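FAQ: What does the model actually see?

It sees only this:
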Amino acid sequence: MEKWNEVFKGKIPEGLYAVELSFGEKNGLIVQLYNKNTSIEIDFGVVKAVRILDEGVVIDGVYLEDEVQKYKKDGFINTIYEIKEGEFKKQVELMLGNYLEFYCLKHYILVTMNYNIEIVTEQEPSIRVL
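And it is asked to produce this:
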């Protein structure tokens, strides 16, 4: 069963953030969160998979409702969560097939004003408040 956990609590200041992504072979995935007061860089490095959904698409049915409601009541103030037993990670593992034994995958979600960004990766991201 899907379970969300707050991770890196307090590293991202509370606020509503717009998003800019940079993704490629040279630097991997870099997520910029920004508003009029704050800019944050989250560097995921090389990732296995990314899924970006418009916030309006995921209101009902994509994620386990109990987990969403647990953090929704506070406005998703942590911004980044780790998902255990999430469907997206299971899909990636299925695609990896026999290669799965070589990876120790983590599944993160960033919940922002307009997007939910899921990342499946082997490493923890580095977070910098600029």
